[in-house]
Amino acid sequence: LQSSTFRLTNKTFRITYGSGRMKGVVVHDTVRIGNLVSTDQPFGLSVEEYGFEGRIYDGVLGLNYPNISFSGAIPIFDKLKNQGAISEPVFAFYLSKDEREGSVVMFGGVDHRY
């Protein structure tokens, strides 16, 4: 199912991770993370993956610096800041040991309850 804001490019890429590798194409779309929205966000759409068999996850969210972006695109964190969706250039993680409690990723600030 393709969204109405999806846009395909002709830019392809290959990435090697610690345990596998992938091939894909750069696409643009509106991306939502909770109540944060990044419009016309470029990201890598995987076409082929190797070495990830048996792993329990469904994607990778790149939070790299723009100058090391594999595609030269502005990463989502920077785009959210540039679009005014977050006020501070900060992200944080709370990794819970309690599976029922769950873990949290925070963009634009820190929730001190964690």
Automatic annotation (TrEMBL):
GO molecular function terms attached to this record: aspartic-type endopeptidase activity
InterPro entries on file: Aspartic_peptidase_A1, PEPTIDASE_A1, Peptidase_aspartic_dom_sf
Pfam family, one: Asp
Principal subcellular localisation of the protein: secreted
GO cellular component, one term: extracellular region
Subcellular location: Secreted, Extracellular space
Coiled-coil region: none
Domain Peptidase A1: residue ranges: 1-114
Biological processes per GO annotation: proteolysis
Sequence similarity: Belongs to the peptidase A1 family.
PANTHER family tied to this protein: BETA-SITE APP-CLEAVING ENZYME, ISOFORM A-RELATED, PEPSIN A-5
Protein name: Similar to pregnancy-associated glycoprotein 1
Biological source species: Bos taurus
